[in-house]
Design a protein that fits this description.
By secondary structure, the chain is mainly α. The chain folds into three domains: 82-324, Clc chloride channel (Orthogonal Bundle); 339-346 and 358-372 and 397-432 and 439-612, no CATH class; 624-924, CBS-domain (Roll), CATH 3.10.580.10. It has 38 helices and 14 strands. It is elongated, with a radius of gyration of 32 Å. The two termini are 37 Å apart.
């Protein structure tokens, strides 16, 4: 059917979608200035995350593109350049992450040193208020820095709060977290981490470096699209002309081939490996961390990219920062222990590791309890005041305990050369020199004030080195033969351990970038040094080194907090150069994990995902509960789908009334009339189906249940919402027979359309995919009668042919398949939609990420908040009626009949839950 004359201009017009709202904009109405500053209790705290599309769309256009790509001209030594482009992204990820790590270390060091020098100047002055002035200056400097960092988080980049490791793990598991990997998140993560660590908060840079590495990889992948749309590309055009402009665009088209979700997942995995290896100076440990903790999908290709990025980030740090050539937490060498020493001290090592695991479990318990009293994310001013309050506590306990419990000890030469050790209230002494030489200044430091107020990084190194002669003053070296004089008092270490545990628990969860690796190591090191010092004093003739106990306890607390194992051992051994203590490190990790698990089941990652609540992590292994279920008991029914040639009006109606992101495509003439399956079968209908089913089985005929299945439609493929948006955007319409309207068929145009579909989220809604499931893109299309302006389109006469574009090889399972098998297929293949079919390939339900998460049930092993139940109409109606077996016996049929599957059709949303939602399982994911 030819279009009317007034329809032709509209059919020839295409639109460009808007980029989407700013990350911090949550209120559509204009609030007052005071409300924008303070925040609102009723404001939404976040959007439900979408799932990522790892599965390639295989259709005729896909095969044509692969054929053209194979037969095309090879541009570089027999290659198309795709492999080289991916390698360049990996290399740049490692190098740039190394630059960020060096910058983070340099700026943190400079600010911390300047702050401590200011405090030293105050303590060296005269006056009785030096202690109060020092406390006030420490608090004010820290408050200014953390206020700026928290304000940036609350008003500009909310996704940069915390360490970010948990959300990166969720992203690599298949959840698209809005604004997690965008450029402003990267910048704010860098600035905020510098402010948090420099202010003296119990936070470290290791966790944020993981997020920074992931952001670097993502920004490199998406940088081309943003540059070509902005002023940078216009400047290039003005300088070099239109021909060079087009040539550059043509060359950069190669990036369209490496921006699929599966490729992007590999680059983000490499960024994670580069970030953690840069933080510890441990490339092998970084690769193992990505494999064990961060990545849910692993392959040899992913391992290769992770190894290259991790090695390059570490090598970049070694070139730019010479002090980091031997590990980021390398310490002064301790004496190696012989086998008999390990055996004799084994009971003490068990106590050391068990207590470390107890500290890790206690931290997780305190942190979760404090969630009840924290300000919600949208109360901006309260969130800022929380961080300022923690700086106040750190300054208060450091100055008060330094004055009340600190002891003055001679300053070792190694400490003085590195500028470590705070004088506080200790006074220097002057002793006469030899043979008329000038007096020599004998400096002292306050041990408790040094523990609380000094740089965490240097304090960890000093605790690891306790027991080595370089850590002793000349007087202590003379007395070392008679007794052991530790650099920190036993009481000071005990006080610091208990107090720091509370401060660390308060700091976890604040609205400021910062990680928990370094605080966990410092907490464990203080306990280990305390325990080792007591043993050294008690058994002076044994080869007991408190620094070794500090290393093992620090590793144990890490294991108790994060519940890691293999990667943690390698990170600590590489980062400390402590290969001689490998046995103790392994023992500490195993023991601490065991103790912590029996006290508090959840680690940091699991509990954080539980708190977030809008991402759904699927475990590598299916939970035991899934082995007792089948697919039809966990699937969602009432599936919305389309025919192969569907009216545009109905497509728009379905897209407006649902939030689904995938739609089954049914064969023509098998999906029934609209309205046939809007309701599940009633009790009376079920009895009839049982009777007819059993009778048909006895007579060899077809069952009524099979007729119900026919209403679902024979599956032909799956079409994504993003593909439909592209077709609507380009006005790719046809008549009822599939003949094009308002356009001529072109093979190249079809290939270009396939490229637009494949790269849709690269160009639109890159960091806010949830917008594509709202009405905003449909409003911008201006196709319906409300938004079409003066031109009125008769959408009932316009159709869309979905056959060339739908995925013709969707993964399906039978409805009697094990739910555990469905979990394995879904996770291993990186699916977003898993269709459930019957024996005739008719769709009876759909399984998504949320359905599997809900079916897993409750348990300590959960890695995320339990999802809402799927809308299974059959199960919902069967709960209110007797069992099918009882009905069969009631009507006199010989045996129980199988329950009929719920019908699924592509026209109507669930009337019980309203047309605006659709079924949540296939909608949001």
């Amino acid at each position: 059917m030819a279009p009317a004359e007034d329809e032709t201009p509209m059919l020839g017009r295409s639109v460009t979608f808007q980029r989407g709202p700013k990350p911090a904009a949550y209120n559509p109405e204009q609030p007052s200035f005071l409300s924008r500053v303070m925040g609102s209790k009723t404001a939404p705290t976040g959007r439900v995350s979408e799932s990522l599309d790892y599965e390639p769309i295989q259709n005729k256009l896909f095969y044509d593109r692969m054929k053209t790509r194979k037969e095309g001209k090879k541009k570089l030594y027999g290659y198309t350049g795709h492999t080289l482009a991916k390698m360049l992204v990996t290399v740049l990820t490692g190098i740039i992450t190394g630059f960020f790590a060096v910058g983070l270390s340099k700026f943190t060091s400079l600010i911390t040193k300047a702050k401590l020098n200011t405090l030293e100047g105050i303590w060296a002055g005269d006056g009785g208020a030096r202690g109060f002035m020092s406390f006030l200056v420490f608090w004010l400097i820290g408050s200014i820095m953390v206020s700026a960092a928290t304000a940036l988080v609350q008003y500009w980049a909310p996704a940069s709060a915390g360490a970010g490791v948990t959300l990166v793990m969720a992203y690599l598991n298949g959840n698209h977290v809005p604004n997690l990997l965008r450029f402003n998140t990267l910048i704010n993560k860098f600035i905020g981490t510098i402010c948090a660590v420099s202010s003296g908060l119990p936070m470290g840079p290791e966790g944020p470096m993981v997020h920074i590495g992931a952001c670097v990889a993502s920004c490199i992948t998406y940088v081309e699209c943003r540059c070509l749309d902005g002023g940078v590309f216009n400047i290039f055009t003005n300088c070099f002309g239109r021909r060079q402009d087009l040539a550059l665009k043509e060359k950069l088209k190669i990036l369209d081939e490496i921006v699929s979700d599966s490729d992007h997942r590999e680059f983000v995995s490499a960024g994670v490996s580069a970030g953690i290896s840069a933080a510890f100076g441990a490339p092998i440990g970084g690769v193992l961390f990505s494999m064990e903790e961060a990545c849910s999908f692993w392959s040899r290709k992913t391992a290769w990219r992770c190894f290259i990025a991790a090695s390059l980030s570490t090598y970049t740090i070694q070139l730019l920062q010479r002090s980091a050539t031997h590990g980021m937490i390398a310490f002064t060498g301790l004496n190696a222990m012989e086998n008999k020493d390990w055996l004799m001290q084994l009971p003490f090592l068990f106590v050391n590791s068990g207590m470390a695991g107890l500290l890790g479990a206690a931290f997780n318990s305190f942190r979760m309890w404090l969630w009840k009293v924290r300000a919600i994310k949208t109360r901006h001013l309260l969130r800022i005041l929380e961080v300022i309050g923690l700086v106040f506590l750190v300054s208060l306990v450091g100055h008060f305990f330094g004055w009340a419990a600190g002891t003055c000890r001679p300053l070792p030469e190694a400490w003085e050369e590195e500028g470590y050790g705070l004088t506080f209230n200790c006074q220097s002494e002057y002793v006469p020199g030899e043979e008329g030489a000038p007096e020599i200044e004998k400096k002292y430091y306050n041990d408790v004030a040094t523990l609380f107020l000094s740089s965490q990084h240097h304090t960890i190194i000093r605790l690891f080195s306790v027991g080595h002669e370089d850590e002793l003053s000349p007087e202590q070296r003379e007395e070392s033969g008679r007794s052991f004089t530790p650099p920190f008092s036993v009481g000071g270490l005990a006080l610091f351990t208990t107090t720091y545990l509370g401060l660390m628990s308060i700091g976890a969860g604040l609205a400021i970038p910062g990680g928990l690796f370094m605080p966990s190591i410092l907490l464990g090191a203080s306990w280990g040094c305390f325990w080792g010092t007591i043993l050294r004093m008690w058994l002076p003739h044994w080869n007991i080194m408190p620094g070794l106990y500090a290393i093992l306890a620090g590793t144990g607390v890490l294991a108790g907090v994060f519940r890691s194992a293999i990667s943690l051992v390698v990170l600590v051994v590489e980062g400390t150069r402590g290969i001689d203590y490998l046995f103790g490190v392994i023992l500490s990790v195993v023991m601490a994990n065991w103790v912590a698990h029996h006290i508090h089941h959840d680690g940091v990652y699991e509990s954080e995902l539980e708190r977030i609540g809008n991402v759904y992590m699927l475990r590598d292994e299916p939970p035991h509960r899934l082995f007792t279920l089948t697919a039809d008991s966990i699937m969602a029914t009432g599936v919305v789908g389309f025919r192969v040639i569907e009216p545009v009006s109905r497509i728009l109606q379905v897209m407006r009334t649902t939030t689904h992101n995938g739609f089954p495509v049914f064969a023509e003439g098998t999906d029934g009339e609209e309205g046939d399956v809007s309701e599940a079968p009633s009790s009376k209908a079920l009895v009839g189906m049982v009777h007819s089913s059993s009778a048909a089985d006895m007579n060899g005929g077809s069952s009524a249940a099979s007729k119900v299945d026919l209403l679902c439609g024979r599956l032909e493929g799956v079409i994504l919402r993003s593909q439909l948006l592209v077709l609507l955007q380009r006005r790719h319409f046809c008549d009822a027979e599939g003949r094009p309207i308002g356009r001529d068929y072109s093979e190249q145009q079809e290939l270009d359309l396939e490229t637009e579909m494949r790269t849709f989220f690269r160009r639109y809604f890159t960091h806010a995919r949830y917008i594509s499931a709202t009405a905003q893109p449909l409003d911008e299309l201006k196709l319906d009668g409300v938004h079409a302006g003066s031109t009125t389109l008769d959408l009932s006469n316009l159709y869309m042919d979905l056959r060339p574009y739908m995925n013709r090889s969707p993964l399906t399972i039978r409805k009697d398949c094990s739910a555990a098998r469905a979990h394995q297929v879904f996770l291993n293949l990186g699916l977003r939609h898993l269709l459930v079919v019957d024996a005739h390939n008719h769709v009876v339900g759909i399984i998504t990420r949320k359905d599997l998460d809900h079916a897993a049930g409750h348990g300590w092993w959960r890695m995320s908040h339990m999802a809402e139940p799927p809308r299974n109409k059959l199960l919902r109606h069967l709960r209110g009626i007797p069992s099918v077996g009882f009905l069969a016996r009631l009507i006199g049929v010989g045996g129980p009949a199988p329950p009929p599957p719920a019908a699924a059709e592509g026209g109507h949303a669930d009337p019980e839950h309203g047309p605006s939602n659709g079924h949540p399982s296939s909608g949001g994911h």
